[in-house]
Write a structure and sequence with these properties.
Blueprint (H helix, E strand, L loop, with lengths): L3 E3 L8 H16 L7 E4 L1 H11 L2 H9 L6 H17 L4 H14 L4 E7 L15 E5 L4 H10 L4 H9 L9 E7 L5 E6 L10 E8 L3 H5 L5 E6 L4 E6 L5 E5 L5 E5 L10 H18 L3 E8 L2 E9 L8 H4 L2 H5 L20 H7 L11 E2 L2 E2 L8 H12 L3 H27 L2 H12 L4 H12 L8 H11 L7 H11 L7 H13 L6 E3 L4 E4 L9 H7 L4 E3 L8 E3 L1 E4 L2 E8 L14 E4 L7 H6 L2 E4 L7 H9 L3 E3 L4 H4 L5 E5 L4 E4 L2
Parallel strand pairs: 21-22, 22-23, 23-24
Antiparallel strand pairs: 1-2, 2-5, 3-4, 3-5, 6-7, 6-12, 7-8, 8-9, 10-11, 12-13, 14-15, 16-17, 17-18, 19-26, 20-24, 21-25, 25-26
Helix pairs in contact: 3-4, 4-6, 4-7, 13-14, 18-19
Amino acid sequence: MGYTKELSSLDKKSVLLAGGKGASLGEMISAGISVPPGFVILSTAFERFLKETRLIVEIDAALDKVNHEEVHTVEKASESIKALIMNADMSKDIKEEIEKEFKVLGADFVAVRSSATAEDSATAAWAGQLESYLNTTSKTLLDNVKKCWASLYTPRAIFYRFEKKLHKDKVSVAVVVQKMVQSEESGIAFSVHPVTQDYNQLIIEAGFGLGEAIVSGQITPDSYVVRKKELEIEEKIVNEQERMLVKKKDGGIELVDVLQPTKQVLTDTEIIELSKLIIKIEEHYSFPVDIEWARDKRKFYIVQSRPITTLTSKPAVQRANLYNKVFSRDFCLAHLEIWYRGESTNPKIWTDKKQPFLPYIVFERRDGTVNSYYDMKGFKWIKELLVKTAKKNKRFIKLLEETVCREVKKIKPIYEKRKTLKWNNLVVFLADFEEMFPWLEAMFLFCEMSKEEVKGLDITNIRNLREELGDLSVGVDEVIRKSLEEIYPDKKEYSEVMTVAEILADKILPVPKLKQRNEKYYFTGNKLFTGVDKEFIEKKFRIRFEKTDAPDSLKELKGQRAYPGIVRGKVRRVMGRKQIPTLKKGEILVSPMTMPDFLPAIRNAAAIVTDEGGITCHAAIVARELHKPCIVGTKIATQVFKDGDIIEVDANKGIVRKIN
C-alpha cells in the first residue's frame, strides 16, 4: 500500500487521507490555481507508525489526564507525547517511500507542513494549531515529518481539541511536502474582510520575505482593501517593515534587515492581479476563503486555502431576500416605483427641477452613467417569468414559493399606500421620518420625475451633470440603524417602509471607509450620496462625525481593529511563553505578538493588544474566533503599558487608552 500521493492527484474529497491542507491544495491545482508542486505523506502512514510502535495506548493515557482549564496538565501531556513520537523509529518502507518522492520532486529545499484530517471544516479551523518547517533539506526531512506528527499533540493543539470538543473524535495527521517558494513577497488574504464583514471587500496583507513572519505577527504588514465587484483599491496602509524572514543557505530560516523598509510591498497592478486570483478561488469553492500566498519571480503562488470560520454576518445577497436572492442587479429605492420599463433619464429634467432635492440625489453608477429604472407594477410580469424559469430549476421553485411570493405580498401595501397619496399628503406621511430619513422625500420625488418618458440619453450630459452637482460622501448606514431602533417601537405600521430603507442603506454605492475632513474630525461610512451643499449635508448628518483628541503624551495608542468591542481592565504583559500562566481571567493581554501557545491565555483574557501584526495574524484570527476585542500593530503597547495599569481597549475605533 502506498503512503504518499502527489498533490495533483488529490481533491477536496481527500481530507481523510491528505488532511484539510493537502486536500485543499490538490483541489486548487485541479481548478488551475498556481500551487507549488509537492506530495502528501498520507494519514495512513502516521496511523501505521502508531500501530507498529504501540504508542496509541500511551498517548490516550496521557490525554486522559488532561484538564484543559489547567495549563500545566496540557503541557505535561504534550511533552510526554512528543518524546514518545520523536524517540520511536519509523518503519523502513515508509522512510524509503518518502525519500523516493523527495527525489522525484527534485527540490533542494521544501516546506513541510502538518495537515490534520479534521482540519479546516466549517466549524473548526486548525489554522496555526499544527506546525510547519520551512527550508527543509534531505537531511532534516524525516525528522521534520515526525515533528509534524508530534505537532498533533502540542499544547495549543491539545487545548484546541478540547476547546472544540474534538478530544473524543479520531483526529489523524498527514504531512504536506512542497517545493519551497523563495518568496520575494508573501502574505495572507481574506476574500471577505474579517473585520467589516463586507462581502464586497477583500483584504490582502503583504510583507517582504517569507510569510511566516506575518502569520506569527512578527511584523506589521502592508494592508490593502479591494472592492471585489469594481476591482478598485479602496484603502492602502503601507507600514514600515524593518525585518524579514529569509532562507538560510544550509537550511532553516533567519531574520534579516529590509533594505527599503518604507517601500510599498505590492504595486497597485500587483494588488489587482492577486485580487483576481483570490476571487477566482472564492468562486471555485463557493464560500469565503482565507489564503496564504507567496510571490517569486513575478508569479503568485497559493500555498494554503481554507474557509473563513469567523464571519457572523450574511452577505447582502442573502439579507436582501427578494431583491438580491432572485435578481443579480443592484437596487435603490427608486426602483420600487419604476422597476422594469427601462426608460432613460434625461439630464435636462435634473437641471430644470433639481432644486427641491438637490442635496439628496442618489446615483446608482456604472462607469459614470445612470442606470435604467423599472416599474413596480412589473412584479406581476416578473412573477410569471420566474414561474417559467422555475420549471427548469426545481430548487428555484422552493425559492419562488417561500421567498418571492412572501416578499411581493409584503411590498404591496407600501405601493398601495404610496399610490393613493397625493404629494402634499406624502410630505405629511413622511414628516415623522424626515429628521431621520431626510432623503425619503427626495427619493419619491425622484420616482415621480423619472416616470416621464424621455428617450435618447446622452451619457456625456450625465457626466457633466455630476460635475455640476458636485460630489460629497455621506454615510447613512449608522443613521438608519440608530433610527430604526428608535422608530420601530412606536411606528410598527410603517415597518415595511423602514425595511425598504434598510435595503437602500445597504445598496447605495460604497466609498472609502475613512475620509479625513480636517485635523480633528473624521467622516466614516461606506455609502455614497451626491450633492452640492456641504454645510447643509454636514448639519443633517453630523451624527456621522466623531471628534478625536490628540493623544495625551503616550497614554493613548492607535492600532488596527481586529475584532470590535470596548473593554476596561488591568494590563498583563506577556512577553514570552513562560509568562502565559501569570495572566488571570479578565485581564487584558498586552504582548509584542501572540503565538499559538498563547491560546489558553487568550481564552482567559478580556481583550488583546499587540505591538506587531496585521488583521490576518495569529492574534487577530484567534480573537475573532473567541470573540475577544483585539487591537494589533500598536508598535509600542508593551513599552507604554505596565502590569496593573487600567486601560480601555476601544476596538471599535482601534484606540487603547490608559485610564489611571
